[in-house]
Amino acid sequence: MKVTEVPAIAGAFLFEPTPFTDERGFFCRTFDSDAVRSVGLDPGAFVQDSLSRSVRGVVRGMHLRSGEGEAKLVRCSYGRIFDVVVDLRPGSPTYLGRATFELSGDTQATLYVPAGCAHGFQALTETADTSYRIDREHDPSEDVTIAFDDPGLAVPWPLPVTVTSERDRKAPGLAEVLRTLEVRTP
């Protein structure tokens, strides 16, 4: 498994498996504790796996957690997504930095998003399944949402946005969230 540091987001990593391909299709390891450990992360820290299915044009995000924050491993297990991470950790050398990725079921690459970073994605295919491995149990009282179309984020969504949740449509802008956000990162 190849591991690459993401320069625009301190502490973020891209894990790219090496699929074995034959006439049946492919097989690959999507999580490797040794690869995770090699970049200083605790593979045992991840306590919850989740899956979302989205249709083409759907945007989910921009989301993060207040308090202790939430680190996550994100992978598109089927289809393709345009994935976005924004560093909102005030003490980070990449504070307010943004990185975008295309994750797909073809590559099975996994993105590590550090706690304190906002995350969102747009489905690029008719169906896109996105898997999350999260390091804390979900606490809805700590959910923070930033308007996905906020000019302060300037996310270059590749498709017209077809559907979002009510929460995402009504989310405050980046400046307002930054005034009230309290995230404690390790």
Automatic annotation (TrEMBL):
Q: Which UniProt keywords apply?
A: Isomerase
Q: Could you tell me the EC number(s) of this protein?
A: 5.1.3.13
Q: What broad class of enzyme is this?
A: isomerase
Q: Which protein are we looking at?
A: dTDP-4-dehydrorhamnose 3,5-epimerase
Source organism: Streptomyces albogriseolus
